[in-house]
Every structure is written in C-alpha cells, then in structure tokens.
Amino acid sequence: ALASLPHPVETFYLSGLKEGDWMSYTVDFGAPAPTGMTLVANVAATVAGAVMEVRLAGPSGNLLGTMEIPSTGGAEAFQGARGLLASSDLTGEQTICFVFRVPPGGAVSYDWFRLGVLARTGEGGWTNPAGGAWEDSSNWEPGVPDGSGATARFSLDIPGGYGPDTLVTLSGPR
C-alpha cells in the first residue's frame, strides 16, 4: 500500500506528447484514505502553458488535481514539477490517469513520477517545517486566541522540495 514512494516510479520515457494524450497506472492506496497527496514528476515542455491533469479511473474521470509543466526550453530539458492532489475516499487499488493538456504547436516529454501521502484519515499530518508538532509551532498568527479560527502558514515537505504555502485554520482548540 502507498505510504510514500521513496523512489520515482520509473516508466517508459515518453516524448512528443500532444493535447489529450494520456497514460494510466494502478496504485494501491491502502487504508485509511490519504487526506492529502503530493505528485512530483520529471517532465519537459517545448512551450509554456502545458498542464498534466491527474484523474481517477480514466482520462475523463474525476479530477484529483493538476500540475503545471513549465517550458523547459526543449523536449529533452527535464526538470521536476510538483502538485498537490485531492485524495478523499482513495482506498485500495485505484487507477490514476495522467492527461496532458498541451498548447498547439507544443510537445511534452515525460520520464517518471512519485506520489507521496501527506497524511491519512485519523493522523495528524501537519508538522512544523522547523521541527516539532504543528500545535507547538511558533507559526500561528499573532493576536488570534487559541482555538477555533487560529491560523498558521506551513510549507509542506514534498519529495524534491517544498510545496506551496498552505493556510491552516483550526476548527477547535490546539
């Protein structure tokens, strides 16, 4: 079952991917369902504006998230791209599908991907990037009383780097 893939899922190197091209994989998400997931992929694009959609069950399935593929200057100029995925109710074996959205005249090359589980239902998945538990973080908004409505910003640790800052708001006391 997927806890976090420590190494990339090596695939066939694919190049010349155009608008609407897709591929799928079967992934065992285990149980309970992840509450958040990360995606890191090694990709290249000849034009700006390319996107990789991550869908459940097939190319027209429920959208789990998107990942921008930056223009890298060439079809062989690979770099890592990152995205956050919705993951509620993903348990057991599921098919995930990568659908490529590529502007006219452009092409994408794809090398590998890595999925990571941020937390599972019932787990406290947020941690302070500086160390320690999230509830002990000094990152909480000053002047907001403890309890419902207190907020903090965290950068989630994604394999290969950090994800976008995420605003966390408490629904009860810390």
Explained architecture:
The structure is a single chain. With about 170 residues, the protein is mostly beta strands. Helices cover about 0% and strands about 50% of the residues. It has strands spanning about 10-15, 20-30, 35-45, 50-55, 65-70, 80-85, 95-100, 110-120, 150-160, 160-170. The strands form three sheets. The chain has a four-stranded antiparallel β-sheet with strand order 1-8-3-6, with no helix packed on it. Strands 2-7-4-5 form a four-stranded antiparallel β-sheet, with no helix packed on it. It has a two-stranded antiparallel sheet with strand order 9-10. It is elongated. The chain starts with 8 loop residues before the first strand and ends in a 5-residue tail after the last strand.
Q: Care to give the gist of this entry?
A:
The chain is mostly beta strands.
Quaternary structure:
single chain
Mean pLDDT: 74
Rg, please?
Answer: 18 Å
Query: Largest sheet at a glance?
Result: 4 strands, antiparallel
Q: Given the helix and strand composition, which structural class is it? A: mainly beta
Spatial strand sequence of the major β-sheet: 1-8-3-6
Number of helices: 0
User: What share of residues is helical?
Assistant: under 10%
Order of helices and strands: EEEEEEEEEE
What percent of residues are in strands? over 45%
Gap between N and C termini: 31 Å
List the uncertain runs. 1-7, 123-148, 155-164
